[in-house]
Design goal:
This protein is α/β, with parallel strands linked by helices. The chain is built from 15 helices and 13 strands.
Length: about 325
Amino acid sequence: IAVLIITCPCALGLAVPVAQVVACSALMKRGVMVKDGAALERVADVDRALLDKTGTLTLGRPLPDPAAIAALPGDAAAVALGLASHSRHPLSRALVEALNAGGVKPAVLDQVAEQAGQGVSALWQGRKVALRRPDSSSGIATTLDIEGQPAWLLPFADRLRPDAKAALDQLRALRIEPSILSGDNVVAVAEVARETGLTGQGCASPQAKQEAIARLQGAGHKVLMAGDGLNDGPALAAANASIAPGSASDVGRQAADLVFLGDSLEALPLAVRAARRTMRVVRQNFAMAIAYNLLAVPLAMAGMVTPLIAAVAMSTSSLLVIGNSLRLAGAAK
């Protein structure tokens, strides 16, 4: 009976889930939501970080050039609003806000379709119309096409997230090399790359993002992908671990392992530090549970432990594991 009580695997069974629950709770208080505890194990191992630009490195609240909006003819403005209303891309949301503020009414469109990384297309009065990604010679912008008319280039301006540079420095201090992987045009990516000191790849389609992740994984790297858009969903799912801002598209939030609220990019190094602390505590918990069994089982088999003492020892080992895990209440620092 003493041997049966001593060998109860309570401490081993609690070693991982208790640590994960406490760490996830600590991160939640700091505005980082973890979908499942296993994600912390993957985040703890990453050594490369690929970051989307618009909505991830930047606030994702770009503002359209007022002069460009004012220059749009009435029909073109209505078409632009109708197209933008069918997309959750940050540029589309900003365009909707600006046009609504100007009293524009959306045009009635047919056969509306959004293609990840390319834009939104439809039919208007039998003519093809589209809001699409401009060529690489443009900065942050979108292009409005109406069949039979010249295209309109709509420039936008965006800002880096607060503390973005400090967050990137913290990632490097954690031995994680960050870089930009974005579907935006090369000029816009190059501008942010200069501001942050990162290397970057622009005009990356969803497939190109997956291929970039696969190349790094093939070289033995563990990749953390941070993105927010519809075109980031496949990359978020393909990475070893992934994180998205709370403002991300539904696809981005669903595909990501972690979601951070607020504007600060310091959620990324915060999550990595918490994950690594969690895994250290998990290893300590396993060590304590194994040490308890190595010590207690031989004593029980030798008849040197009564069932009552065995019950106390078994409970004590579980309490030690729980107590050690509770130290993670301050893990999100």
